[in-house]
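Run: sequence + manganese (II) ion -> complex structure.
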Amino acid sequence: MKKLSDAGLEEFNRMVRGAAHAVISTHAHPDGDAIGSSLALARYLSGRGVSTRIVLPDPCPENLAFAIDDTASEFVIDKPREAEAALKEADLLISIDYNSPRRTEHLEEAVRSVSGHKVLIDHHISPENGFYDLVFSETEVSSSCELLYDILLRMPEIGEQAERLGKEIGTDLMLGMTTDSNNFSNSTWPSTLKMAGELIAAGVDRDALLENLYNNYRENRFRFMGYFLSKKMKITSEGVAYAVVSADEIRSFGIRDGETDGFVNIPLGIGAVRMSVFIKEEDSRDRLRVSVRSKECTSANRFANLYFNGGGHERAAGGRLSVPAEISGIDEADEYVEKCAREFFSAENNKESRP
Ligand code: 5GP
Ligand code: MN
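>> structure
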């Protein structure tokens, strides 16, 4: 990670000192990094006497609910009207783990209407220009949690002493760095491992966290995983593994939000696969949500950007397709992916995208 500028850190510290009502905003369908970084920041701001709320466009998925203890539950708002009211009152907005207010979906307008100071803390490619007063954008980190850790360590009262953050903030930060790096299997930088070591030394119980994260799923997830791998996954001649699952299939396995997280990574374990695409029909049936993962020399970001109105990171990206505006129905999704794969790998499109 590049060194954060002293001027930016001083400005952030001044903004926090001057804030009365802070609102932390993160992306729709929040993942471990969105939840972990928001909670860590909320605990920190609250510790500095700032009244703080986290506005979630969608509820926290059940498999991450363990992270929201009694103190944290005071911060979290996931009801649209309450979220809009909190945003209206905010004199400090901190957007974390997204690169544009567009990623807050139905809260976008309320986020854009905030009149107070606006800060972005994020690790995705291409942060939106113009909207924020202060931007911390760094792509060479595992997660927003890692970038936030670096910012918090540099606050005057923390003085680079991780133990001064406390175990709760440390555990929240460890959560996001662990999930976004797939438990240190991707996006792992020297700074990532250094941070993990410092947090463990500061008393974070990583074993307990891993138990909560990876050994506490419901059986349904694994039944559905078997179905996904044996019945749904296809592999194109270009080496694109893909699966399209309908809302009915998801319902018939009793799958809840968050319970298919990580499925998209599994096909990358096949030597011949260069990219993996996982497509899920939303309950409303008017949208397909898309996750894309790729191996080295193939840009998931570019694929998501070209064909699925999305983006993200070089090897982990996402997007969506509207039905029937962009694709007439889920039945056509297989054919659409096959066509995109052919085009992408025949043209110059699969070159790595530049930040
Ligand atoms: P996931 O597949 O886990 O939902 O998302 C993978 C990555 O792509 C995440 O970093 C996420 O923030 C990003 N991403 C997911 N959906 C979208 C989208 O619609 N637009 C953009 N720009 N990024 C997305
Ligand atoms: Mn993230």
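>> summary
The longest strand covers residues 287-294. The pocket of guanosine-5'-monophosphate (ligand 1) is lined by residues 27, 31, 124, 291, 310-313, 316-320 (CB under 6 Å).
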